[in-house]
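Handout, section B. The chain below has 72 residues.
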Amino acid sequence: MSSSKKERFIKIAENRTNTIINTLRLLGNCSNKNNYEYTEEQVKQIFNAIDAELKTTKMKFERKETKFKLKG
């Protein structure tokens, strides 16, 4: 990987990670029961969706290229 690709990755990854962290903090503000009313089921749905997307994204980074090979 060339230096410019590394630098571009670092810049973009840091910005996007910080955006996600800030957005999660904003979501956390919705937990204030003085301002919002919600059910445990709604909270479960929110975090199930976040967990599923996080798992999918993490798998993209962990994916190893494999080649198809017939047995026999």
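Note. The longest helix spans residues 3-29. Compare this with the example in section A.
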